[in-house]
Structures are given as structure tokens and as C-alpha cells.
């Protein structure tokens, strides 16, 4: 692989040999139909999710309020996605049959689509009341949203993200990351909802308490 050599000039010889060895041994699997389809679905899902997130933030809040936060890209998120690719590559190399369960993979793809639509529907419904950073005090353009998808679910965008993120791992037939993503994302939202609702009760008072009483959070086992 001569095109890799300039990149590896500064890397210890043993590490570079290891990388070249790994790349050459898994390259046949990476270029298979299965990997091509599943990985291109994965990269398209990530690109569409963050691209539309950015465009909606730009539309509702303007250029000055849009940051990396609006793209929802954090260090932990990048690590999780890299981890999922590592799991995928290791498994497709050692257990290629694991990736051939198309019913499972297509179910994951359907979840990715459902999760994406739910999240974007929530953002569009809430409009300027939807901010990526949790508001801790009342601002002029912040109104209580109780219509559309919010009529039944208090946290539809979190529900959508949970479905989307776990869906990406089911789509890749990644058992470890499916469980890991479900646990980590669930825990993250369980904590975040407590914090967010504390301020929503402060801002909207009994109107929010009454709204919360007649709706479900949208996250399993979170009241
Ligand atoms: C990232 S958005 C998430 C909104 C909601 N938790 C969801 O999952 O769709 C967080 C912001 O939305 C606001 N928010 C959440 N629910 C709301 C509602 N029903 N009406 C108005 N603002 C809301 C919060 O105050 C917070 O600033």
C-alpha cells in the first residue's frame, strides 16, 4: 500500500507495520458488498443527521447561535462512533457471517429512519423553543409547546435520538455497541430529563406540571 507510507513516516515502525498488516488483512472484507452497503448506510445516516441538525439550527436561531454543539458532535460521541466502527471491522474479519443477517440490519435501517424523522419533527414543531443548550430562565421566544408530537411525548427529540443511535448499531449488526449505545444514551437522557424538567417547571410553573402529568417522557422507564 504505497499511498499509506507518507502518512506513516512519523509513526514507530512496529506500529506502522501493525497498521499495514491490519489494513491488508481486512481490506478484502471492507470492499465486500456487505461492508460497502452497511458502512455507506452508516456514513449517510451520520451525515444526514448532523447536516439537517445544523440547517435547522441555522434556520430557527441564525448563524451566530450555531456552534459545534448544534451539530451534537462531542469527544465522547466521536469515540463511541469510532468504537462502533472498530467493532464492525473486527467482527466482519473474524465472524463475517454475523453481518449477513439482513432482516436485523434492515430493521436497524428502519429504526434509523424512524428516529431521524421523529427527532426532526420535534425540532420543527418546537421551533425557536428548541435549543441545544438547556434554558435555565425564561426568554422572550420560549413558549410551552404542547401540540403536535409534544401532545403525547414530552421528549420526542430525545426519543428520536435514542431510536436513531441504537438503530445505527443494529443496522451494522454490532451486538456489543447495540447494548452499549442503548445503556449510555438511556442513562444520559435519564439524567438530562431530570435537569431539563427542573427548569421547565421553574419557567412554566403549574402549566408544565399539568402537561407532564398527561404525557409520557418518551424514554423507556423514565416517568
Ligand atoms: C434539546 S431541546 C429538547 C427538547 C425536548 N426535551 C425534546 O426531547 O424534544 C432542550 C430545550 O427544549 C426546551 N423544552 C423542552 N420541552 C419543551 C416544551 N414542551 N416546551 C417548550 N420548551 C421545551 C427546554 O427548555 C430546553 O431549553
Please provide a brief summary of the model:
The chain is mostly helical and about 220 residues long. It has helices at about 5-10, 15-30, 35-60, 75-95, 100-125, 155-170, 175-205, 205-215.
Helices and strands, with pairings:
Elements: H1 5-8, H2 13-30, H3 33-61, H4 75-94, H5 102-126, H6 156-171, H7 175-204, H8 206-213
Helix pairs in contact: 2-4, 3-5, 5-6, 6-7, 7-8
Organism: Salvia divinorum (Maria pastora)
Subcellular location: Endoplasmic reticulum membrane; Membrane
Catalytic activity: [protein]-C-terminal S-[(2E,6E)-farnesyl]-L-cysteine + S-adenosyl-L-methionine = [protein]-C-terminal S-[(2E,6E)-farnesyl]-L-cysteine methyl ester + S-adenosyl-L-homocysteine
Descriptive account of the structure:
The protein has 223 residues and is an all-alpha fold. It has eight helices and no strands. The protein has helices at 5-8, 13-30, 33-61, 75-94, 102-126, 156-171, 175-204, 206-213. α2 crosses α4. The longest helix has 30 residues, at 175-204. The termini are far apart. The model has no long low-confidence stretch (mean pLDDT 90). Bound molecules: S-adenosylmethionine (SAM).
Amino acid at each position: 500500500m504505497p499511498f499509506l507510507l507518507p502518512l506513516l513516516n512519523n509513526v514507530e515502525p512496529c506500529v506502522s507495520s501493525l497498521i499495514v498488516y491490519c489494513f491488508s488483512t481486512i481490506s478484502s472484507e471492507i470492499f465486500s458488498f456487505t461492508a460497502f452497503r452497511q458502512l455507506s448506510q452508516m456514513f449517510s445516516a451520520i451525515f444526514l443527521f448532523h447536516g439537517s441538525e445544523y440547517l435547522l439550527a441555522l434556520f430557527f436561531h441564525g448563524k451566530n447561535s450555531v456552534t459545534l454543539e448544534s451539530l451534537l458532535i462531542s469527544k465522547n460521541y466521536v469515540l463511541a462512533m469510532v468504537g462502533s466502527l472498530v467493532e464492525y471491522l473486527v467482527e466482519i474479519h473474524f465472524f463475517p457471517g454475523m453481518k449477513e443477517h439482513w432482516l436485523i440490519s434492515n430493521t436497524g435501517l428502519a429504526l434509523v429512519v424512524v428516529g431521524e424523522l421523529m427527532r426532526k419533527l420535534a425540532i420543527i414543531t418546537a421551533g425557536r423553543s428548541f435549543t441545544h443548550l438547556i434554558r435555565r430562565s425564561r426568554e422572550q421566544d420560549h413558549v410551552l409547546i404542547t401540540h403536535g408530537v409534544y401532545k403525547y411525548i414530552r421528549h420526542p427529540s430525545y426519543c428520536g435520538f435514542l431510536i436513531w443511535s441504537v438503530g445505527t448499531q443494529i443496522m451494522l449488526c454490532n451486538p456489543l455497541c447495540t447494548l452499549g449505545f442503548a445503556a449510555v444514551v438511556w442513562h444520559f437522557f435519564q439524567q438530562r430529563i431530570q435537569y431539563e424538567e427542573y427548569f421547565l417547571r421553574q419557567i412554566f410553573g403549574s402549566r408544565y406540571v399539568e402537561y407532564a402529568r398527561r404525557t409520557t417522557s418518551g424514554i423507556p422507564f423514565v416517568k
